[in-house]
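Q: My labmate handed me this sequence with no annotations at all. I'd like to see what the chain might look like in three dimensions before we decide whether it's worth expressing. Could you predict it?
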Amino acid sequence: MKSLFSLIFNFRDKRLEYEFCGMKLPNRVGLAAGFDKNAKALHPFSGIGFGFIEVGTVTPKAQPGNEKPRLFRIPSDRALINRMGFNNEGLEPMIERLKNRPHGLIVGGNIGKNKITPNETAYTDYETCLEALHPYVDYFVVNISSPNTPNLRDLQEKEPLKELLDKVKMKLAELKATQPLLLKIAPDLTDGQLNDICEIVHETGIDGIVATNTTISREKLSISRERIDNIGPGGLSGTPVKKRSDEVIRFLRRKLGNKFPLMGVGGIMSPTDAVDKIRAGADVIQVYTGFIYEGPSFVKRINKAILKEIEQ
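A: Here is what I predict for the chain of 312 residues:
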C-alpha cells in the first residue's frame, strides 16, 4: 500500500531516470549524508521521492558527538551552522536497519573515523566501515571534509589523502566489493589543493567526487559578529555556500572532463539552485538545508524543474 507521503510528494517520470557510477537512479535528487545518520527513516524518505539516499556519516563505534546545542538556524541567511561531530549509533544498528531497506532504493554509505582515532591510523576505521557495510549499500563516500571532527580535514592534504584512498581501494579489492567509491571534499580548498585532488583521483582510480561539504567561512552571513561569535564553530550550509560550491564543481568539471562522475551538494535552496548545480557540472545533486527549510514537497519541485530543463 502506498503511503500518503508517496501519493502526495512522489513525482515519477521516465525522463528523469539517470545512470550514475553504474547505478540506475529514478531521478537525480538525493538526500545528503548527515540527515539520516543512522538509517532510521529510509522508508518515509523513499516515499517522498528521493532518487537515492546517503546514510551516515557512520563510524565503527558509536559516539555521542559534540556537546549541545550544536545545530543553529539562521533564517535571515537561509542557512544552518552545525557542529554535530559525527554523532551516530555505530555500524551494528545501521546494518540491522539496512537489512530491511525499501526494495529498489539506492542507498549510499558515508563513512568516517571515530574522534579518538588518530589520523595516522584513520584508514583502519574506514576499512572497518567498508568491510561491515559492503553487503548493504550501493556506493561509498569517504568523508574527510567535516569541520567538526578535530584534524579530520588534514586528511585532505595530498600525501595523507593519497595514502588513505590507496588503502581504502585495496580493501575494496580484497573484499571483492564492486561499489563505487566517492570522496567528499570541502568548499574551503584552494585551487592548488583542488588540483592535487584531481591528480589523486587519476592516481587512485576513485569513482567520483561529492562537492561540497559545509564551510568554515562566515563571510557571507548578514547576522552580527556578536551572534556569529555566540554560535561558535561549526560548518555553515545553505545559501551562503552555494556560490563556492558551484565554483568548485565547475573547476572539477574542467579538470576532470565531461565523463567523470560529480555529485553536487551545497546551497540548493530552490529548484533554480538545483538546476544551477547541474549546469555547473554536477551529474546528480543532494539536498540537506534546503530540505529543512522547504519541506517534503521540495524534491518534487526540483524534479519538475530538472524535467523542464532537459526538455529544452
